[in-house]
Write a structure and sequence with these properties.
2 copies of one chain form a homodimer.
Chain A (H helix, E strand, L loop, with lengths): L2 E3 L5 H6 L9 H10 L1 E5 L4 E3 L7 E7 L1 E7 L5 E8 L3 E2 L1 H5 L7 E4 L3 E7 H10 L1 H27 L2 H16 L14 H8 L3 H13 L3 E4 L2 E4 L2 H8 L4
Antiparallel strand pairs in A: 1-2, 2-9, 3-8, 4-7, 4-9, 5-6, 5-8, 10-11
The structure holds a DNA duplex (30 and 30 nucleotides).
DNA sequence: ATTCTTCCTTGACGCATGTCATTGTACCCC
DNA sequence: GGGGTACAATGACATGCGTCAAGGAAGAAT
């Protein structure tokens, strides 16, 4: 169960309160900040479920979340990785449909909930927040379309290299400057790449043999970034 | 070359003027309607090019357009099919980046151009237009994410059936109630499915042998819709 | 420590699908 | 009509990648 607490004066929440709302006019920001409800979710806990109706948007104060579809045969496809400062659940809210994805915490995470009515009413009167929202949506759409092209045209090897770079961009590295600062299972990596778990494992082993990465349990250290970029074969 | 003519009183343009702008407040609609520039594009003509900077949004009065990425190896991936009443080019405009796709007319099309500054300024002051814009973006994003899952998990056969249904939903049927009312080359169909041209051809032949469709040049007649739906194997 | 469970790893195998090559067909231009 | 270009169709072939199966490693629970 999530420990739920309403805490407008929580400095930690205030500091990291999702960056999008900084675009809102000050009075609106105050209003949202007061109405929001912060909770802590444990690793593996589900924040919302595919098929459920949305009652608001979620803002990540701290932590890491995966958004995933469960395909027809039950296989999971990871759609997006969410980090501190991001919001999630807005798509379903705006198109007034049920969630098409499930949000699961990849590690203990602190998350704020902003009720639907408030969010929508602020959106109505705050043009700059609306604009920021459109900017986010456009950017997500652009990424999704690029991903469609790559899924259709690139071999798994290139997509895996690309995925490693994507994880690095999203969650960054640990203090050593090499280790990806998130622990994903091989299955999750495969579900991000869009391939079978065994294929992901095999290719990771190849990458290791080629000196591109080092593997230690779920730790992945990037040894030769240039080579990874070359393998990803990115042009655009 | 496009025959370019500014024509606020053109009844044809007025009638079909893109549905999104109906959501705008009346004064704004008038303003946009006056500033817009209508052009006619011939089949095969490019409306805008991947990599170019956007100067406005395009609204389709009449016709059919494909939006496509050209992948790294030059292979084309069709991202979206655009029909009368739709708008295009908004994504690049809103995220303030270059076009990530090329728009090409699939048949002679009548298209209005709304200048960037006007569009953005109206968006700033017209909450209900902004909201409609967000609704469209959310809906496109939802579709794109579903497509990612299917590309990653479904075999080509299912995806082809799905694509046929998608074309039907988008452009509808001819008067006979069976023939898809757009003519796409086999290569374009393949680029929509995300497969090789030969694979698309082979599977279309199979569908014909199975009595699901009838082929006559670029005409595709849907004989057994139920069976096509079953083949697409859609759950969500 | 021991069991249990979950995850990782590797091998073997087969099929779906991409690539290459050839022929056939329709349409267009002069 | 002839020749050209673009597209469609089919066969042969290679292989990338998914599936199945079995063994090993690591962590959790008792």
């Amino acid at each position: 169960m999530a420990t739920s607490f309403h805490n407008p004066s929580c400095q930690h929440c205030k500091d990291r309160f999702s960056s999008i709302f900084c675009k809102a006019e000050l009075c609106n920001l105050e209003q949202i900040s007061e109405a929001k409800v912060c909770s802590v979710y444990k690793k593996g806990q589900v924040i919302f479920h595919e098929g459920a109706y949305p009652f608001g948007v979620y803002c990540i104060n701290d932590g890491k979340i995966k958004l995933s579809h469960s395909g027809d045969d039950g296989r999971e496809q990871i759609i997006r990785l969410v980090k501190a400062g991001d919001i999630m659940g807005y798509k379903a809210l705006l198109s007034n449909e049920r969630y098409t994805a499930t949000a699961t915490a990849l590690e203990d995470s602190s998350i704020c909930f902003v009720p639907k009515d408030l969010f929508l009413s602020v959106l109505q009167k705050d043009a700059s927040l609306s604009f920021e929202m459109m900017r986010i949506l456009s950017s997500e759409l652009r990424k999704a379309e690029l991903r469609i092209t790559h899924l259709a045209q690139k071999p798994v090897r290139e997509r895996l290299a690309e995925t490693i770079l994507f994880i690095r961009e999203t969650y960054g590295l640990e203090a050593d400057g090499q280790t990806l600062s998130v622990r994903l299972s091989r299955e999750e990596i495969a579900n991000l790449v869009g391939t079978a778990t065994e294929s992901a494992i095999r290719l990771l082993s190849e990458f290791r043999k080629d000196g591109m990465i080092e593997l230690e349990g779920k730790k992945i250290r990037l040894l030769n970034l240039t080579e990874i970029i070359r393998t990803a074969n990115l042009q655009d």
